[in-house]
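We emphasize that the prediction below concerns an isolated chain of 123 residues; any contacts that depend on oligomerization or on bound cofactors are therefore not represented. The input was used exactly as deposited, without trimming of termini.
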Amino acid sequence: QVQLVESGGGLVQAGGSLRLSCVLSGRTFSDYTMGWFRQAPGKNREFVAAISWHGDRINYNEAVQGRFTISREDARNTVYLQMTSLKPEDTAVYYCAADRGWAPTNQDAYDQWGQGTQVTVSS
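Result of the prediction step, given as a token string:
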């Protein structure tokens, strides 16, 4: 059974940092592009960042470029999202997702999704 489990969300003040983690089980982690998406209240889910299966391609939403860093650790079947200089507009439920191809911003390309972790940034 394939499972993606996110962790690391929480409440942080503006300017602070958080690191999200997502563990994939039930599949070969190194076969997958891993992506992070987020959904704020009343808004559509949007792309945040993605990293290819070899880690040689990375893509970021312009809104987080320079503040967020995606990385992966295949030995732990884990993808990370290091978030710094957080802003209130980063408040959202953050989801990780897995894709066998490379279409990083296309949500329909991802066939496995986690349940999400809440990130709240106070002003």
